[in-house]
Amino acid sequence: MNNKIAIITGASHPRDIGTAICRKLASKGIDIFFTNWQADNEWINRLQQEIENLGVRCVGMEIDLSPSDAYKVVLDSVELELGTPSILVNNAAHSTRDGYLELDGNTMDAHYAVNMRTTFLLSVEFVRRFKRERANGRIINMTSGQDLGAMPGELAYAATKGAITAFTKSLSAEVAPLGITVNAINPGPTDSTWMTDEIREHLLPNFPMGRIGQPSDVAEVVSFIASDEAAWITGQVIHSEGGFNR
User: Fold this and answer.
1) Would residue 71 show up in a list of annotated catalytic residues for this protein?
2) How far is residue 114's CA from residue 120's CA, in Å, rounded to a whole number?
3) Which listed residue (71, 100, 112, 157) is catalytic?
4) What keywords sit in the KW lines (predicted)?
C-alpha cells in the first residue's frame, strides 16, 4: 500500500480507535493525515514522530468538525500537505447521553453536525477529488451496531450513527464505477477512552471470547478493508464484535 494517503478523523487520545488506525495503516506504508480535537499537543507530536519513524509521512490537524465547511478545510489541508488521498476513514463521532426526557434541538444538532453532515460531505468531496489513476479508493465509515439492538439513553447518537448505514449502502452503488468501495464497520463495545472499570465488569460476560474488544481489533479490520484484497467488498456493514451478545 506504499504511496497511498489516508485521512483518519478523530485521533485524539493514545487509547482511542482513531490512533490505533493511524498506527496500523502507517505500518503498511501509508502516509497518514489525522484530525484531532482538544488533544494534548505534546502527545500529538509524539504520535506524529512515532508514525514518521515507520518511514511514512504524517500530518496532524486540530479541527472542530461541527462547522458546515469543516470537510473542505480537511481535504484542502491534506492535499496541500501530502497530496490527494485514496483512503478516508470517518472515525470521529460526537456522543452525549440524552434519552426522551433530555433530548432537544441543540443536542440533536450537535450530533448531526459531526456524525452525519461532516461524515457525508467528507465522503462525497473525497469522491469528487479522487484520482483513480493513483489507486483504488476506500471510504470506511464507523458505526455502532444501531441496527442490531436498542441504545436507550442515546437517542441522538443512535439515530445519527444509524443513518451512516443507509448512506454507506447508497453511496457505494453510486461510486463503484469509479473504483471506490464504501463500507462501514461496527466494532461493538471497544475498550477505548469511554470505558470505566464498572462498564468493563458489566460488559465482559457478554463477550464469549473472554475479553473486551480493543482499538487494535478495529484497526485490523480497517487495514483489511483498505487493502487491495478487499476490492470486491463494498456496501457492507461489517460487524466485528467478537461475538458480543446483546
Assistant:
1) no
2) 9
3) 157
4) Oxidoreductase
Averaged over 102-123, what is the pLDDT? Answer: 97
pTM: 0.94
Nearest to 141 by CA among 32, 24, 234, 34: 234
Residue range 198-207, pLDDT digits in tens: 899 999 999 9
Q: What is the pLDDT of residues 204-239, one digit of tens each?
A: 999 999 999 999 999 999 999 999 999 999 999 999
pLDDT value for 69: 97
CA 61 to chain centre: 15
* Domains of the chain with bracketed CATH: 5-239 (3.40.50.720)
The beta-carbon contacts of 27-30 under 8 Å, at least 24 apart in sequence, are: 27/54, 28/1, 28/223, 28/226, 28/227, 29/1, 29/2, 29/3, 29/4, 29/55, 29/56, 30/1, 30/2, 30/4, 30/5, 30/6, 30/56, 30/87, 30/226
